[in-house]
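Order emerges. One example.
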Amino acid sequence: MVFRVHSFELLKACIEDILSTIKPGEDDQKKRSYAIQELADSIYSVGALRGATVKPFGSFVSNLYAKSGDLDVSVDLWSSSRIPISKKKKQNALRELRRALQIRGVARSVEFIPNARVPIIQYMSNQFDISCDISINNYPGQIKSRIFYWINTIDERFGDMVLLVKEWAKSQNINDPKNGTLNSYSLCLLVIFCLQNCEPAILPPLKEIYDGNVAEETVFYDEKHVDEICVANISRFLRQNMGQRNQTSLPRLFASFFSQFLGSWDRSSTVISTYMGRFERIQDNPSWLVKPYSLFVEDPFERPDNAARAVGAEELEYIERAFNYMSGRIVGGALDDRDELVSLLCTPSVGSILGGIRANRCTNMPSSCQLYSPVAANQYDMDLFMILT
C-alpha cells in the first residue's frame, strides 16, 4: 500500500467555481417552467391530445439539473381503464405532437425516435433555447425523479457530486448512451453507490428508502404516496444515524469517486447495486443472467433492469481509461495545476467561463494573495487527503 498526500485547496476552489457556474438560478428555473407551458399550449391545439396533462420529470424535478441540462417531460394521456397504453399508441401521439410543434414554430431540430425503449421526441425550444425530451405516460420516470428529489434532501453533497460528475463525464465524452457510454441516470447511481460505501455511510441502501418496483406502478402514478414513503424512511435513517454524520469534505468525496470503481473486480460478473448498497455477483440472481452486459448498474426501482445497458465493450474500456486517468492525475499532481484541473473537470464552455473568473480575480487581487478565495459559504477541512493507489 502506498499513500500519497496532497493539499486539496486548489481542487476545493475549482469545485466551488464550477458549481457556481453550472448551478441554475431563478431565471433558469423560470425558463424551464415557461418551456413546459409552451409545450402544454402546443398540446391543447391537437384534438387527439386534448385532455392530456404535461408533467416534468428527470433532473428538473429532482433538483439535480445544471444550467445546460435537458428538460424531460411526460405527456400523460387520460385512460378510463388501468390497462397501460400500447407503444404504438404512444408513437402515434408523439407524431401528432411533432406536427403541432412544427406548425406552431416553437421548436427546431425536432427528432422523433419511435423505436427507442421509451419512444421520445427531442427538440430545441426556439424561444427558450432549452433541449427538451418528450415521452408519453412516463410514470417510471416520474416516480424515479420524485425519489431522487427526496434522496437529494438527505445531504447536500449528493446533489453537488451529481453535478460535478456529470460535468466531468461530458468533458470526457462518456455521458452519451447513443454512442455506447453512460446515461445520466447511471451516473447518478454511481454517485449514490459511492456515498453508500464511504465510512460512515452518507446514503443508505435504496431499498431502505423505496422498496417498490415502478414497473408495477405505471398506471395512475400517486405522487403523494411516493412522497409519504420516502419521507418516512428518510426520517428513520436520519434518526438512526444522528450524531454519526460523515464529515468528509466534498473535494475528498469527489476524488474518492474515481478510485472506488477501479481495482480488480470483474465487470462481467458483478452488479453495482444501489438497492443493496454493495457489489453483487450476477450468478447469485437468475434474473441478472438473462442477458450479458459489459457493465451492470442495477436500476434500484425497476429491478432487474440494467441502467447502463447501453454501454458497449469497447466503450467500457474508454470509460475505464477516463476513470483511471482522472484518479491518476489526482494522485499524481493535477491538484497543483489549476489549468489542468479545469481541463480535466469541465467542458470547454464551462472552462472558458472559469478562465474569465480567474482573470478577474488576478486583476482585482493583490499579488500577495492566493489565486482563489472561497466562493461558497461552507468551509471544508482541506488539510490532507490520503488515497490508496
